[in-house]
Amino acid sequence: MLELGKLTPQKFKELVAPYLPLIADELDANPLPGEGLLVSSNPALGLPLRTLGFFAFHYSASNLAVAFARPKYISLTVLLPPGSREEDLKCIVNEFGREARRYGVSVIGGHTGVYRGLEAPVAVSTAIGIRVRERLRPEPGDKLVLIGKIGAESLWLASLKGMVKLPEDYWRRLTPLPLALKLVNDSDVKLIHDVSEGGLLRALTDISVKFSVKIGVKSSSLPVEEGLKVLNLDPLRAPSYGSLVTVVRDGWEPKTDLPHSAIGEVREGSGVFIDGAEVKLAGRTYVDEIYGEYTYSTDPVLNSLKKAFKDIEGEPKLAELIPEVGLNLVYAREGCRGLNDIAGLSGRVIRCLGKPKVCGEVIYGGSKHLAQVLLNAMKLRSEYRAAVNVKGDLKYFKKLEEVGLKVTIVPPRVSESPCPIADYLREAGKLFDAYYHPGAHGIEPSIVILGKDPEELLGILRRLVSNGKP
To answer: Domains in the chain: how many in total?
Structure first.
């Protein structure tokens, strides 16, 4: 099975190159037939939506710059999953256009559409640039210089999980493009390579493999962003997009003000050696896995729900909580005025082969009965903006009490409406954290749990299926 992320050079040679009429396979960007043109194509996905257009531009444009070309033209393809909003598309293309105008790059085409089979937005760009000069082959005695510092991307990813606190627009610094453009005319800079997937170790390995040279680096010379230590990451593997590794002639000094650190040298042989010991490529770091968790929409309510449903689908233990009618989870906007301000799944979470399976789309108005329960609860306590229904089993009712929630039993009636818990909430005028309904003719027993947000409710569900003490 293929691993997540960009293919290694070896896998590319085995699985891709033999089947394509490739003109060239260069680092970062490839030459176009003709004189002096380079092209680079890259996807942007798994990113918070507000950043997607920014990175879609910079991934491809930066690859041209590190290949000593100035970006001139670019295309953009935006593929959106069902349920995407007009505001989401506008956010992507606005950021992309802003960066293109900033760097004087013309948009020459692309494709935009909404398609089934997608779980999150994808933006793919292809950039064409005019080569300023040829990249030069590294030779023994050349020096390795890092432009920028290691770990800015890692800190940003950690901030998405609340592990560190950063300025809101910190992500705008995560591009090597302005740094690379300052180096393209410097004849003493022989090679530039961006530090992207796999961190500095992957970048150094790419150079070693491509040019059949040995890379020697001193770990004590690596410049690291302040705060990276708290993440307990290997600096060699830490995601560090925005920094550059360069091969320069001995004695090089930057002609412009650039943050730079000498980290090692090129030698005869092969492989990457850190402090004299050879180091091989390793797997992804835990912060790499944050990509994909916050990518859905500019709407925080929809984002939170989609992430919660993704988490539910990825936790087989939660299948035991799914009732016959299916599980749903709803979340209301701040200042909710009615059912149309409450988002939920248009279908249900069902059990499929013993695992949770999400069926439907997360939309406003996606749930009627559970949303009515939440709406009635919010009239009594506005902080409760989320609700989930689970199997009506007394063992879960008791466990909810054990974890400290205030619970109550909704008495059955002779004449039941489709949503007895909503009726009870409206009439009782007293709020609990969870409600158990024992069922009636044509109505399955059920439990509804209230909470501040989907993340809190998901934590409660995990405790319900935990084998240990609550």
So the answer is: 2
